[in-house]
Write a structure and sequence with these properties.
Elements: E1 2-4, E2 8-16, E3 21-30, E4 33-35, E5 52-60, E6 64-72
Antiparallel strand pairs: 1-4, 2-3, 2-5, 5-6
Length: 74
């Protein structure tokens, strides 16, 4: 989940612990409010990602850049 106080361009990516981008979940303009996003555990090509630790990075222009660790269990 993420909340925007104003309309903003948002990008939400998942990275593996090697720093390689696994999946882009959100990329575009979003209206103010709370938004929920669910990762299905697949990469951008539709292949299942292995269990492990991943990093979720949210960038919202002009000045938000947040990262959180995720644990994917199967």
């Amino acid at each position: 989940r993420f909340t925007l106080s104003q309309e903003a361009d948002v990008r939400l990516d998942i990275y593996n612990m090697s720093g390689r981008k696994v999946r882009t979940l959100v990329d575009g303009l979003h209206v103010p409010g709370t938004h929920a996003v669910r990762w299905d555990g697949e990469d951008d090509c539709g292949r299942a990602a292995p269990s492990g630790v991943y990093v979720c990075r949210l960038i919202s222009l002009p000045n938000v850049d947040l990262s959180r660790k995720l644990l994917l269990l199967k």
